[in-house]
Amino acid sequence: MKVLVVGSGGREHALAWKIKQSPRVTQVFVAPGNAGTALEATNVDISATDVPAIVQFAKDNQIDLTVVGPEAPLVIGLVDALDEAGLKAFGPSAAAAELEGSKVFCKNLLHTADIPTASYQTFRSAADASRYINDRYTDPSDPVPVVVKADGLAAGKGVIVCETRADALDAIDRIAGQKEFGAAGNELIIEERLVGQEASVLAITDGETIITLPAAQDHKPAYDGDLGPNTGGMGAYCPTPIVDEAMYEKIESDVLVPIVHAMKRARKPFKGVLYAGLMLTAAGPKVLEFNVRFGDPECQPLLMRLKSDLVDILEAAADGKLSELPPLEWDERPSLCVVMASEGYPGDYEKGREITGLAEADAIADVKVFHAGTTLVDGKVVNNGGRVLGVTAIGSSVSAAKLQAYKAVQKIRWQGAWCRKDISDKALNA
């Protein structure tokens, strides 16, 4: 069969790499792809959000399954367009993708379905949101433990954690005043800041059956020790010891099952990947957000451990036949992904800097370098994004996987390259 992967990040490289391993697959295409996907598949020069062109390509090339990686094409209805053309696709409809496309919709649904989450208020203007902060926190010296979130898609950067009143007012101005994240800031949420450790629990569902994947832990803040601004994710590892069997079952029963039922009641039945971003508080797990696709970078360590045929799983979800699948098989060893980023990320950064040492890094045992923000220029791999590579390793323990991943990181060079040095340390401290 022929498979088309839509997207250009590390997640899409990992998907193409894993899909290619299926004995059922004869050809893999990636639109638009990157320098790494070109090693696994055939890149197609079509933007991930060019819905008509993707549908036409899938028709012309008799694609048997289209796997949509990023959130933007899901939110604008790529899966709906493929379905209407009689083409099989893995991912939620535009209506179901609103779970990620609108944080206001998500929070309201969580509240209605009685799924544990932070208390919150929604606002349509910077003035109203600022008035709320000033009225509630009258003393400028008092702590203001809130999180300000843009309603729409903002590439993982529209969430600002605040410590003071000045922080909160600045976040409101950036999101809803200056519109730093564009139309994503037309509405915003102010919610209580939860205390605990974060975990990512992903599940694949066909709207009836839910297959929960091993828990992972992402590292959103830019710098070591969880300092600095939020990013799209600076690294992840899987599984995480902070989600034990009892916690895993609680997340399934209190979060995943209720959200699938709530989406069905809202007449937005969900098919695809449900990604629950959770805070593990003293009162139990609470939902920070839902995403509607594989996480990036969580996808990389997850797929590194998956032994079952990924194509069988994705196709069964698209066909509504997940209940017919045997239990998934996993490599028992933990895996870890370290994101290497461009100088200046998550702010402005320079593109076009040549990357060396990729082959040497990939040659290290139990290591796979997944490309994210890369492209080919005159046959050379150069950086083309903020998060550039996801250096992923598997090992007999978390510390062994970490050692292999950072060994590979040391082989890779480009001007201004950097990464966090503490990916997975929370597991070692647990």
CATH superfamily of the largest domain: ATP-grasp fold, B domain
Quaternary form: single chain
For the biggest β-sheet, the strand order reads 3-2-1-4-5
Our count of helices gives: 15
Average of per-residue pLDDT values? 96
β content, as a range? 25-35%
Distance between the termini: 44 Å
Number of domains: 4
Tell how many strands the DSSP assignment holds.
22
Unreliable segments (pLDDT under 50, ≥5 consecutive)? none
Largest sheet: 5 strands, parallel
CATH class of the largest domain: Alpha Beta
CATH architecture of the largest domain: 2-Layer Sandwich
Helix proportion: 25-40%
**What's the Cα radius of gyration?**
21 Å
CATH topology of the largest domain: D-amino Acid Aminotransferase, Chain A, domain 1
**Overall 3D geometry?**
globular
**Structural class by secondary-structure content:** alpha+beta
Keywords: ATP-binding, Ligase, Manganese, Metal-binding, Nucleotide-binding, Purine biosynthesis
Domain ATP-grasp: 107-319
Pfam family, one: GARS_N
EC number: 6.3.4.13
Q: Mind explaining what this structure looks like?
A:
The chain has four domains: 2-94, Rossmann fold (3-Layer(aba) Sandwich), CATH 3.40.50; 125-186, no CATH class; 197-324, D-amino Acid Aminotransferase, Chain A, domain 1; 335-429, Phosphoribosylglycinamide synthetase, C-terminal domain (Glycinamide Ribonucleotide Synthetase, Chain A, domain 4, Alpha-Beta Complex), CATH 3.90.600.10. The model has no long low-confidence stretch (mean pLDDT 96). The strands form six sheets. A five-stranded parallel beta sheet has the order 3-2-1-4-5, with helices on both faces. It has a five-stranded antiparallel beta sheet with strand order 12-15-18-22-19. It has 15 helices and 22 strands. The chain is of the alpha+beta class. Pathway: Purine metabolism; IMP biosynthesis via de novo pathway; N(1)-(5-phospho-D-ribosyl)glycinamide from 5-phospho-alpha-D-ribose 1-diphosphate: step 2/2. This is Phosphoribosylamine--glycine ligase.
